[in-house]
Design brief:
The longest helix is centred in the N-terminal third of the chain and has 21 residues. Strands 1-2-3-4-5 form a five-stranded mixed sheet, with helices on both faces. It is built from two helices and five strands, in the order αβββαββ. With 122 residues, it is of the alpha+beta class. It is globular.
Length: 122
């Protein structure tokens, strides 16, 4: 089996983000930012419900070869996401919001997406 192309990986990541966002929207959250970038990197999803701002790292898998999404968020990645969140908060006007860090593990299969949200993951 050949390695997926960059376009295929981008499309898979986008589909995973769409699926995770759908779960959050059904829970009453609204999208604030998607793929927000600065010099430190990128935040996948920034969503809000009342005074709770959630930074969600989305990990999309098409099979079990590389493990689950939650396990893919290493300590160094968590530190980078926290630093990105600090940069986002400095620029966004959400300084007074409660903040939570989630991981969305998305499995894409023939029957659609299976999404598991790990709230307060780190």
């Amino acid at each position: 089996m050949s390695r997926p192309t960059t376009d295929e990986r981008t499309a898979r990541g986008r589909a995973g983000e769409d699926a995770a966002l759908g779960v959050y929207e059904r829970r009453g959250f609204a999208l604030v930012a998607r793929n927000w970038r600065c010099h430190l990197g990128e935040l996948d999803l920034v969503i809000v419900r009342r005074d709770l701002l959630v930074f969600c790292e989305v990990k999309t898998r098409s099979g079990p070869a590389f493990g689950g999404g939650y396990e893919a968020v290493t300590w160094s990645k968590r530190r980078r996401i926290r630093n990105l969140a600090d940069a986002y908060l400095e620029r966004s006007g959400f300084e007074q919001a409660r903040v939570r860090f989630d991981v969305a593990s998305v499995w894409l299969g023939a029957r659609g997406a299976d999404v598991e949200i790990f709230e307060d993951a780190f």
